[in-house]
Amino acid sequence: MIVISYNVNGIRAAITKGFLDWLSAANPDVICLQEIKALENQIPTEDIKALGYNYQYYYPAQKKGYSGVAILSKIEPKQVVFGTGIEHMDFEGRNLRVDFEDVSVMSLYLPSGTNIDRLSHKFMYMDDFQQYINQLKQTIPNLIICGDYNICHQAIDIHDPIRNAKVSGFLPEERAWLDGFMKSGFIDSFRYFNNEPHQYSWWSYRANARNNNKGWRIDYNLVSDNLKDRLTRAAILPEAKHSDHCPILVEIK
Predict the structure, then answer these.
(1) Which of 20, 219, 243, 248 has the largest count of CB atoms under 10 Å?
(2) What is the pTM of this model?
């Protein structure tokens, strides 16, 4: 099974930049999208279905044109779960999960901490999400949590760790949370296969950052520890340029 995660920063905008042609060529079994910024009736679902994605699930934010996640699948899930049941998380359409026979895949869009209010909201979300996943693992042990975590884990994951040490996304408290979350039973699938520096998944639109590869690795496919022996490949796909993020891929047996 090939699973891709992609923050498209507006699915309609991404489609105008060739997203559907790219999706046809990449051909994952499942793709998790974040920041769709659209309602289902604003998305060309028939065009997507024509690519083989008969199972499409959209979970937009209540605020129009903001946030929202989706999962497109070629495989029929046995269950689909919209949200977490925690109101402050679900209001913004940030969690969507599909359960297959022996593995579950979640699309996650963790808040950014752009100001003091949003940073406190982000920390509340992170704490509640950890508790939610701790409980979920008791009944669904085989989890792949794909998405934009809005946190760089380590210095190797950001182009300038010194200057960004006090910027949200690389704050010590955020990094400690992500480290603890991974240690609670998840593998960073990309780092499982690749320890090279200068590997990023997001670049600012400013100062020609992408062409200069001044980026951040804030998108992860985190895989339950007990799926470790089934991991076969993980990659970042920076050649896809429909967003300020790029897709990330994980393959499991």
Answers:
(1) 248
(2) 0.98
